[in-house]
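Support request from a user on the community tier.

User writes: "When I paste my structure tokens into the form, the page sometimes reloads and wipes my input. The last time it worked, I copied everything first. Here is what I submitted, just in case something in the input itself triggers the reload:"
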């Protein structure tokens, strides 16, 4: 069924804006509201990791972000002044071998500017009050303006991207299960004078807690430190003298802090809903999961929620796929959310160890890690999020004989194309059409039957270190492998796709080669 009403997105933070952008680029009518009168003026989330940059690249705007951010290529870890480990992010298996440091306030402005070029503006001072889900007939929502006036709005689907205190999550009655860490923390956006690299992250473990210094645009640093606020001061900022005392006690010698523009106390929560959807309502970003800032993956995970949901929703709204395709959203992203929640929590516990024996084991382990390249690379892949994969999903083929380079569910890396249906020269460029891509490696390019070309396209490459020669890969619009088969069995193997194809009104027919 082709959608006749817009998608209503509640929340215009990075996740909601990303979802609106990805949907609108695929020609889906969207409406995005936010109860605040403008975008945030705080730096908040600071980093965009390589995998998120790859997805922004598919959507045609990665370069805009790169031009407005700072490339941080390494992180160094110290313990009580001793250098333990250097992590080189340029080893990430991506064309974007760095952490892009860019404050959330700027991320939101850039996304909103991209939306404006597509004719979409955020409806500010507008909040969701309630809704009724009528199934196939869509949803009826009550919206409220800042002056208290209420009115009805109608949509085919509702996306809750409205943060940790999500109204949408509350309205569907989804439990936000988890806990709050006992420790308190502070952050401060400051200028630091002294000998410190302005393109790397510095992490210091000390007996009285952790200190982390993250580079920012404009020559500033974000300080995050474990810190117990005095009673009654949890809502107050930090003085520059208090910030300096933390740096003196835990950081490299000779550093002087000044010009703090934002300081805040905070606690860390680990919480997640079990299901990211209910009926025609979907949750994404902090509305579905919140976790420790360790690893800096919160905003990235939310933006990747949005990209995952957008391509599926676009195919359904255009009548190219059955609504059942949307069921895979919660399955896939809930599994990723669980994984990120666990790894961020584990990293937080490791970095905040106070027991001297455990802290010494941490020190020894870090030194060992510095001498094992394979383990360092694994850690970089984890930070870059290039190792994220969809194992438990109905969209993967289970045909046997497929390649494990990359395997079904793994990320499909961007490569130059030798030939493609629409003249695209890179895989990401071809995926921008929102279609599946049948990528032939070292074998003739497949010809997609006429009746299926609204859903799938094809391309070929001669050879690549990223893909196995002699195989054909079915790559999803979000650059993950759905399945692969050797070229000799391509007709048989793709015929076995019919159960999946029928479910999404997609590749149900046979395929031939040029």
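"...and here is what came back when it finally went through:"
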């Amino acid at each position: 069924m082709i959608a006749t009403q817009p998608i209503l997105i509640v929340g215009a933070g990075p996740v909601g804006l990303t979802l609106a952008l990805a949907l609108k680029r695929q020609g889906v009518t969207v409406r995005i509201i936010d109860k605040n009168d403008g975008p945030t003026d705080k730096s908040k989330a600071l980093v965009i990791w390589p995998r998120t940059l790859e997805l922004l690249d598919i959507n045609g705007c990665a370069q805009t972000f790169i031009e407005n951010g700072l490339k941080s290529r390494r992180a160094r870890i110290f313990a009580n002044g001793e250098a333990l480990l250097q992590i080189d992010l340029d080893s990430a298996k991506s064309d974007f071998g760095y952490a892009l440091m860019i404050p959330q306030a700027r991320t939101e402005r850039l996304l909103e500017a991209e939306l404006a070029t597509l004719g979409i503006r955020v409806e500010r001072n507008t909040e969701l009050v309630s809704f009724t889900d009528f199934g196939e007939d869509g949803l009826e929502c009550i919206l409220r303006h800042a002056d208290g006036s209420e009115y009805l709005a109608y949509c085919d689907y509702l996306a809750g991207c409205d943060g940790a205190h999500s109204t949408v999550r509350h309205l569907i009655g989804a439990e936000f299960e988890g806990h709050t860490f006992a420790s308190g923390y502070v952050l401060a956006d400051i200028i630091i004078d002294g000998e410190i690299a302005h393109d790397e992250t510095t992490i210091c473990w000390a007996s009285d807690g952790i200190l982390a210094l993250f580079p920012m645009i404009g020559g500033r640093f974000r300080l995050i430190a474990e810190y117990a606020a005095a009673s009654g001061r949890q809502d107050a900022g930090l003085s520059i003298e208090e910030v300096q005392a933390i740096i003196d006690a835990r950081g490299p010698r000779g550093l002087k802090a000044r010009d703090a523009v934002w300081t805040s106390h905070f606690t860390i929560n680990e919480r997640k809903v079990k299901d990211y959807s209910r009926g025609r309502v979907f949750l994404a970003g902090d509305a579905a999961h919140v976790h420790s800032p360790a690893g800096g993956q919160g905003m990235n995970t939310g933006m990747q929620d949005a990209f995952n949901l957008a391509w599926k929703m676009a195919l359904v709204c255009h009548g190219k796929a059955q609504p059942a395709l949307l069921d895979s959203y919660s399955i896939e992203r809930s599994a990723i959310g669980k994984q990120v929640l666990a790894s961020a929590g584990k990293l937080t516990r490791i970095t905040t160890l106070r027991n001297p024996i455990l802290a010494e084991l941490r020190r020894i382990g870090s030194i060992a890690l510095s001498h094992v390249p394979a383990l360092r690379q694994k850690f970089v892949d984890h930070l870059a999020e290039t190792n994220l994969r969809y194992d438990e999903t109905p969209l993967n083929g289970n045909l046997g004989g497929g390649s494990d380079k990359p395997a079904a569910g793994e990320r499909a890396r961007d490569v130059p194309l030798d030939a493609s249906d629409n003249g695209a020269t890179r895989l990401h460029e071809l995926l921008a059409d929102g279609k599946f891509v049948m990528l032939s490696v070292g074998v003739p390019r497949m010809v997609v039957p006429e009746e299926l070309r609204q859903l799938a396209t094809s391309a070929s490459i001669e050879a690549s270190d990223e893909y196995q020669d002699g195989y054909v890969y079915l790559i999803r619009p979000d650059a993950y492998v759905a399945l692969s088969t050797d070229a000799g069995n391509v007709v048989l193997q793709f015929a076995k796709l019919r159960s999946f194809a029928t479910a999404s009104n997609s590749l149900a027919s046979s395929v031939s080669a040029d």
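Agent notes: The reload is a front-end session timeout and is unrelated to the input. Confidence is low (pLDDT under 50) at residues 495-513. Residues 327-351 form the longest helix (25 residues). Escalated to web team.
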